[in-house]
Amino acid sequence: MPNTMPSTMADPKKPVLEVRNLSVSLPAGADRAHAVENVSFTVSPGEIVCLVGESGSGKSVIAFTVMGLLAKALKPTSGEILLEGENILAADESRLRELRCTRMSMIFQEPMTALNPVMTCGLQIDEVLETHTKLDAAERKAKIIAILDRVKLPEPERIYASYPHQLSGGQRQRIMIAMALVLDPVLLIADEPTTALDVTTQAEILKLIAELQAGEGTGVLFITHDFGVVAEIAHRVAVLRWGELVEVGPTEKILSRPEHSYTKMLISSVPSIHPAHRGVRRDGTTVLRTEKLGKTYSGNAFFQKARVVKAAVDVDLDIRKGETLGIVGESGSGKSTVARCIARLIDPTEGKVFLGDTEIATMSARKLRPHRRRVQIVFQDPYRSMNPRITVGDSIIEGPMNFGLKRDEALDRARNLMETVRLDPNSLDRYPHQFSGGQRQRICIARALAMEPELLIADEAVSALDVSVQKQVLELLDEIRVRLNLAVLFITHDLRVAAQICDYVAVMSKGRIVEYGSAEQVFGAPRDDYTKALFSAAPGRNWEFGKFAA
Amino acid sequence: MLDFIARRLVAIIPVLTVVAIFVFLMLRLTPGDPAAIIAGDNATSDQIDEIRRALGLDEPIWTQFIIWIGNVLQGNFGESFFFKKTVAELIAQRVEPTLALAVCTLIIAVVTAVPLGVLAAYRHGSLLDRFVMGFSVLGFSVPVFVIGYVLIYIFAIELGWLPVQGYIRIGVNFWGFLERMVLPSVTLAVIYVALIARITRASVLEVLNEDYIRTARAKGLTNRVVLMRHALRNAAVPILTVIGIGIALLISGAVVTESVYGLPGLGRLTVEAVLSRDFPTIQAVILLFSVVYVLINLVIDISYTLFDPRIRY
Asked: What is the dotted CATH code of the domain comprising B88-307?
């Protein structure tokens, strides 16, 4: 409510948000006592402060504590959170409700799920005005159309009447931003707002947030794990580890002259966008070759015209022994479709797939079975790609045993592989939940290698991992490739990762390969317009992240 | 959408064909001769043969089936062996009590169960939640006739507030109709309250963990608005599904309830027809129930689109 604003608002130098010695306790039985311990920082008007940290660092907990939306199990135990001088930790529920969306607003990571699917976007913004203002229906509508226009959504009238599922991810995030900023709050909390978006959309949303906050002088608390985003948008950076603030400072200083060893390690882990020099093509034998590979999905309808989606069109690729081919592209570009067609997890509708000399695209399921062993996949989410009810040992030996290996031999192989992926061979009888995300992904790699494949497909295999863990898994994959002289097909949306691990890169857009060449050529001198646009959207592309000795 | 409805209506035909053949065969392949039952204990075998001939039961089964199905296709369900009326008349007489019972039961069930389920979800782990869940277990496990007799004993016999049994047509005396509808509907509703409350609770509980609920709270909305406007509508689809299944199950529930309260409805007609092996009546009633079942499912499927704009047929 505007008339209940504290008088401190008038002072432009006064920070909009001041967090002092904040501690939030975790419930008994957690891996540590506090989610957040003794954290202090400020956000001034017109300033963007990035909270950076890996998963579990407590950055989201801080955001939710400020909004008063903390899960019931978590309790702030000490400290103060001052929003324009008013201590939010002392405010009751109804005062917090008054402040939400009027003085402080929040946007979230997943625009796909953050909006109510059964309400039109216009009505969802209207709720904010209905709750916090005394405007009549026509005034509210006019204000909503104005804010939709300000967040640069095309045809505000149509968007007003649209349901979330009718909009793209970027458009939904704009709706969230419109909702958050419609009442001109002094503080905007953005919790990984671009993490779920494609790189070109991400660049647009970052630009929009920066523009809007600069125009209104809004203070922004921006939560991210991505140093590229930090380099792009932050004025100041606060680095968190295990709930403690390890370092705060201006962006330029933190990125180029970090003091704390943890900050140094984090920044050193960020893959460079310039490809590593990996030498020329070896004369290995071709492991995989596709010829005009295509996948068309068509729905069948009784009376209406059937819907046809071309997920992949005329894809020609080849990979030799000991070589990594990357497929990069945005979501919906068809990169995973291609991977799945190659592994025959789905059946291609056009073209050929040669595995060595064997054509497998049209092979019957029964004949295909012996060839299944030759292609193995590591999937994106290590939390969901392992059966939680069976031990990791059984997960690893299941495949080889299906192909006739005796249990003892399979277990021997599993133990060796656990060493290869640098895990304790004696932990084979443990269950997936007893491992961390990075460890699980190593187990998934071991599971794939247990089949002694000729081609390893990594489908966004490091995308769900923290940057320091990501670095280790990437190094591991590359080491295995060299040691086993393995052909690797690496699917990723992350250009930095692709630059570091690939010998060759294929850029996909709308089901087609738009550019295909050596990593050095594609990254160094892209020829296709789409590739150029993709690279220029990469956050922090102008910043070379240094390698620091910890 | 029209495409979808058309397809679903066409799909009724094979369903009814299978039901018709199955019912017809089951009745004739199981022991029990309607002619013997009609003729009574002292009849001679000649008399029984005479009745059998009169009813057309002396023909081979497949001839009987073709005659029957031919008549049904012309809208003629034949004449009851016992009630000396056409089956169509018989059903028309008995539809009202069952329909009234079903509608009242559903209203009572939905109006009590949905709010209970929402509250239990909102305050999950609380005393209220445990009470609702405890009641659900009880509602599932106590047989309908036990609930019926207990309610009759308390409200009709001991307190004398409501009549014990019987039925008055809605057009004759509305108040009398309502009085006689309360106990049967409540009796039959118990199990549905249990079922729907449980599903509502589970469904709302799941929705409350969704990101958009957090968004709604971050807007500064009150808990009531978050719950009723954002959570419930998103939780609607599983609830509707269960209500749809519930309506189908109502038919069997109606048999017991109508017997306990002496309602002259379709449930009792079915029981009487089965006991006296009144083939034409049983066949017609079963066909009717099948059509109703398929249509209700269609209505439920269409109603999903009212609650969730993402569902389009």
From this structure: 1.10.3720.10
